[in-house]
Amino acid sequence: MKAVRAAEGGVQVVDLEEPPGTGELLQIRSASICSSDLMYISYGCRFILGHELAGVDEAGDAYVVEALYGCMDCDQCRSGRYNRCPTHGERGLGFSIDGGMAEQFRAPAGRLVPLPAGLDVRDASLVEPAAVSWHALRLAGTGVQTRVAVVGAGALGLLAAAGAQGQGAEDVAIEARHPHQIEAAARLGATIGTDGRYDVVVEAAGSPASLARAIDLVAPGGTIVVVGVFMEKIEIDWPSLFLREARLIPSLGYCAHAGGREMEDAAAMLAANPEISRTLISHRFPLKDAEEAFQVASDRRSGAIRVVLEP
Ligand SMILES: [Zn+2]
Ligand SMILES: [Zn+2]
What does the pLDDT read at residue 89? Predict the structure, then answer.
């Protein structure tokens, strides 16, 4: 059984005796490459990669894998906020345990989310990053009356622009740098470029400059929500936040809420608007060509947004 293992400077396609993971067996139909995977490679992780996963079980039913595995026993997990489980770093797919970028993968039954009608399992690996952006928008209180700006137009930024519209916002602007990102943002119905200040600002680039930009854009009383990953101490222009009494909140993964799971919300959004997957999935490769796929995903000039591996 083929699987994609992190290796020095890239990945290696390896043959495994047994599918990675524990639990229900899935035939993986789509596994996408995330910038986190590239980060894990650079950290020196050597696990099987893959946390954006969709597949079918033995009965032929299609699922996405909710890739945040909490302990399901602590207070945070029991309240549905398994993204805040203090142990989830020990269960990071591709980071601290083997992920599912493989022909087959086993996932705990409780972490499988059934696909809604209208969402093709070949597109469904996108549900995972879509849930990350969906969670951020919910944390920030996005709604019909909110003006939303997104800084950064990689996959998470574009999915935030789509998600903000999915949560009812009519005025959604995005700051995009590269021509293929601008084109994608326009296809998703976002306004290209910002004008004035915004109630909700999504920082989706993960750089100090983009966080500073997000602070520039927030309206008095507004909220900046950060999906970009900062793993070191950073400087923040506190007076600008203070004088506008703006909130700055980090966003981590996704979780459940009284009405269900954010993975279900994100899947419903993708099912309702297939243009999102068509726009976001820029490349598809067979799993055996994962080395080339990772080169494309890590090359800024390739025009890649999401690169999907298929059987
Ligand atoms: Zn990811
Ligand atoms: Zn827990």
Answer: 83
Tens-digit pLDDT profile for residues 234-243 = 999 999 999 9
CATH label, 132-250, candidates 1.25.40.890, 3.40.605.10, 3.40.50.720, 3.40.47.10: 3.40.50.720
Q: Report how far ligand 1's centroid is from the alpha carbon of 54 (Å).
A: 13
Q: Which ligand is nearest to the CA of 38?
A: 1
Question: pLDDT by residue (tens digit) across 170-219?
Answer: 999 999 999 999 999 999 999 999 999 999 999 999 999 999 999 999 99
Cα(184) to ligand 1 centroid in Å equals 19
The boundaries of every CATH 3.40.50.720 domain in the chain are: 132-250
Q: Which ligand is the nearest neighbour of the Cα of 79?
A: 2
CATH number given to 2-123+274-310: 3.90.180.10
Length of the chain: 311
pLDDT tier at 29, thresholds 50, 70, 90: very high
CA of 223 to the centre of ligand 2 (A): 27
Consecutive H or E run containing 147: strand 147-151
Ligand nearest to the CA of 36: 1
Which of the ligands is closest to the CA of residue 82? 2
**Tokens at residue 168, please?**
């009812």
Residues lying with their CB under 5 A of ligand 2, a single-atom ion: 70-71, 74, 77, 85
Provide mean pLDDT across the span 29-33.
Answer: 98
The Cα-based distances of 285 to 5, 103, 125, 273 in angstroms read 16, 13, 14, 23
- What is the DSSP secondary-structure string of 267-279? HHHHHH-THHHHH
pLDDT of amino acid 98 = 97
- For the entire predicted model, the pTM comes to 0.97
Ligand in nearest proximity to the CA of 255: 2
* Residue ranges, CATH 3.90.180.10, the chain: 2-123+274-310
Place of tokens 């004008």: 195
Nearest ligand for residue 77 CA:
2
Rg (CA), the chain: 19
